[in-house]
Request: fold
Amino acid sequence: MTRKKLFNSSTDHLTAERYGTAVPLGEPTFETQVTCQLLNRRSHRDFRNDRVCESTLTYLLACAQSAPSKSDLQQYSIIVVEEKELKAQISQLPGMDDWVDKAPHLLVFCADLRRGWRITESKGLVNENNTLDMLVNATGDAAIAMMSLIVAAESLGLGCCPISVVRNQIEQVSAWLKLPTGVYPFAGLGLGYPADEGKTTIRLPQSVVVHRNHYDDSHLLEQLHTYDDTRHGLTPIPTEKQLHPERYGIQPNLKWTDNVARRLSVRERRTFRAFLEQQNLALE
Ligand SMILES: Cc1cc2nc3c(=O)[nH]c(=O)nc-3n(C[C@H](O)[C@H](O)[C@H](O)COP(=O)(O)O)c2cc1C
Reply:
């Protein structure tokens, strides 16, 4: 099959931006609008005021639902938060950044085992799969549906940013959204027309993330050191983005791995398991 090359010079540039360093791709490299858009993807947290029209939103939601789904079970739900007050309540919760309130649209992607429970029950059968495995399936479904919507939205010139902070006060958010048992909010998504271009956040090199045949992290620390230096050279972490300064202080030249370690050293979302139990998602 002959593949049409839509762009001439952007792939080298876009992959270099993605990794902060040139990537030898070799020939032939086929570029499409989709590959270029994916390489150029970035989260947007600053939006114009104008809203997306209803038909565009419906179209984007159809794109979200076009994502693959484990066993075709379609175990997710998307809450489009339309009521201004409800959106304000959620976006003004402690821990939410200001941009969430300003984003014209807020969607909440939920893992949803409930629908399957109801289907099974309606057929007079007993659901034997209220399991952790099924929750992982449902969470995966919700995540890839969200990503499909992100890709579709970006292709229309829109911008998005996921919001896991909805899980910080998961009980409160779920009560406001009236999420029944069997459902939990995986992530919110702020959506709108971006106010600026945003910027690429560089990724770990493929030598760290991609393993050929067998997992091998024997050179991890040296590789991370190089990544830290590359990333710091391009986009140093601003002082206000240093995590947990109350515990660790402000450190000159704080690197990505320092912030990762800082984040992982402080327990987040302690109530999550209890919440899942409350939602009847206490899974074997
Ligand atoms: C599941 C998920 C949850 C996220 N939650 C938040 C969030 O609560 N707040 C936020 O500002 N960004 C959030 N993000 C965005 C990440 O911070 C962002 O993807 C990461 O910093 C890389 O930047 P990029 O998306 O521009 O490449 C989330 C991303 C994912 C995939």
Observations:
- Residues 42-43, 97, 161-165, 187, 201 surround flavin mononucleotide (CB under 6 Å).
- Confidence is low (pLDDT under 50) at residues 1-8.
- The chain has 13 helices and four strands.
- Residues 10-39 form one domain.
